[in-house]
């Protein structure tokens, strides 16, 4: 995955299904494209919103992180302080 581009949190936030047509979420530093998932229509999945890092929210989910194996990794999330 080292050949993937790097995006900031601000760039990720635009991929929320509203500002741009892509619906992306991040988990453990990897950004996934969930656009094709019927569960992420309009950029929302239950109480979770697209365009965000969901790492801290997953422990409350009824599934494991294996759910991300269904989606294409499109970028890495910048770990820098600039958002």
Description:
It contains 1 helix and 6 strands; from the N terminus they run βαβββββ. It is mainly beta and 83 residues long. The chain has a 4-stranded mixed sheet. β4 and β5 form a beta hairpin. The longest helix has 5 residues, at 9-13. 18% of the residues are buried.
Uncertain residue ranges: none
Question: What proportion of the residues is helical, as a percent range?
Answer: under 10%
Strand order of the largest sheet: 1-6-3-2
H-E order: EHEEEEE
CATH class descriptor: Alpha Beta
CATH architecture: Roll
Structural class: mainly beta
CATH homologous superfamily grouping: Cytochrome b5-like heme/steroid binding domain
User: Total domains, how many?
Assistant: 1
CATH topology: Flavocytochrome B2, Chain A, domain 1
Distance between the termini: 22 Å
The profile of the biggest β sheet is: 4 strands, mixed
Strand percentage, roughly? 15-25%
Radius of gyration over all CA atoms, rounded = 12 Å
In short:
It contains one helix and six strands. With 83 residues, the chain is mostly beta strands.
């Amino acid at each position: 995955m080292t050949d993937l581009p790097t995006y900031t949190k601000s760039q990720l936030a635009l991929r929320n299904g509203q500002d741009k047509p892509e619906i992306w979420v991040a988990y453990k530093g990897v950004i996934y494209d969930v656009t094709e998932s019927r569960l992420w229509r309009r950029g929302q999945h239950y109480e979770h919103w697209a365009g965000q890092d969901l790492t801290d929210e997953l422990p409350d989910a009824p599934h494991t992180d294996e759910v991300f194996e269904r989606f294409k990794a499109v970028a890495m999330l910048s770990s820098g302080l600039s958002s």
